[in-house]
């Protein structure tokens, strides 16, 4: 039986769209450049366990996660290739990095020393130094680098595997002057280190860098938002087209669906929802959906957002609740109890893009996707047919 028949709300992940995006981005790279697929934040809301098998299918070289818990989930899902930890780890759990066979970012000397203590000299932990070039988030200052390299020269439990940085202003502008300054600084800091440590990977490029500045790609790239079918920004789209001279297409892979839980006929002049925040000016048919801000549908979309019913836009009425929202389906024909509704994605000729919701929320598509509840079932599809069901993606 199709698992969708027993669900009130679920997320469908299009395997073909993901494959297209991964292939499109990889085709921009020089042969031999390693491809790291960033699957932090539950694979940008798509479900970490759902996408790991697709990483195998699409010849992904590395996976990148933020937290140790995500690394554990990736290993349980069967990922045995290199796995990179982008975020910090509690000192009491550093031994788990060795047990899971991870490589990890390092930006403070105390953590490096602690990793060396728990590392195995026969299989030392690969560490990647995050160099400070202008973002001032994670990062090692130039004056502190000599202490790191001196330590690594005598370390036994760790080995220098990579040198990394992150761009501060490459997505939100078509002027990449600051990014070029960061890149020059990275090369200035990394070149002397690489002369003393062989086989050290350099990686700086996110999706926007891959699309707009090929000189940033070095030995490996770390691709996130573009792999899921979203441009980092309009500016990235413009800069990419100017660079390539032709458009490329990224295909959003995620569709969020729900079923109408109840249909109500509301008389003209009646209020809908908390706070009497909306009042209908005509006899109105209201669809009650079992979705709210606890599921990741932001309360800020109250009276602003739309859902799709039978390929028509239906505006949200009143305030979005914790587990419920209401939509006006008066102008949608043949709506019934249990009718399928799209909250994010396409239906017929209409679509609701994460960028549309982000503009209404005054944020970015990354946040819209990352906040989708991990308890919503993720269903993997090919040409509309379910090929795998992940139930709940886990917390």
TrEMBL record:
Stored SUPFAM superfamilies: Alanine racemase C-terminal domain-like, PLP-binding barrel
Catalytic activity: L-alanine = D-alanine
Enzyme Commission number(s) of this protein: 5.1.1.1
Pathway this chain belongs to: Amino-acid biosynthesis; D-alanine biosynthesis; D-alanine from L-alanine: step 1/1
Entry's Gene Ontology cellular component terms: cytosol
InterPro entries: Ala_racemase, Ala_racemase/Decarboxylase_C, Ala_racemase_C, Ala_racemase_N, Ala_racemase_pyridoxalP-BS, PLP-binding_barrel
GO molecular function, one term: pyridoxal phosphate binding
Superkingdom classification of source: Bacteria
Pfam entry (one): Ala_racemase_N
Record-level GO BP terms: D-alanine biosynthetic process
Domain Alanine racemase C-terminal: 253-381
Active site: 40 (proton acceptor), 274 (proton acceptor)
Keyword Hydrolase attributed: no
Required co-factors: pyridoxal 5'-phosphate
Modification N6-(pyridoxal phosphate)lysine, positions: 40
Gene3D superfamilies associated with the record: Alanine racemase (3.20.20.10), Lyase, Ornithine Decarboxylase, Chain A, domain 1 (2.40.37.10)
Chain sites annotated for binding substrate: 137, 322
UniProt keyword list: Isomerase, Pyridoxal phosphate
Chain's role: Catalyzes the interconversion of L-alanine and D-alanine. May also act on other amino acids.
Entry's family note: Belongs to the alanine racemase family.
Protein name from the UniProt record: Alanine racemase
Protein source organism: Eiseniibacteriota bacterium
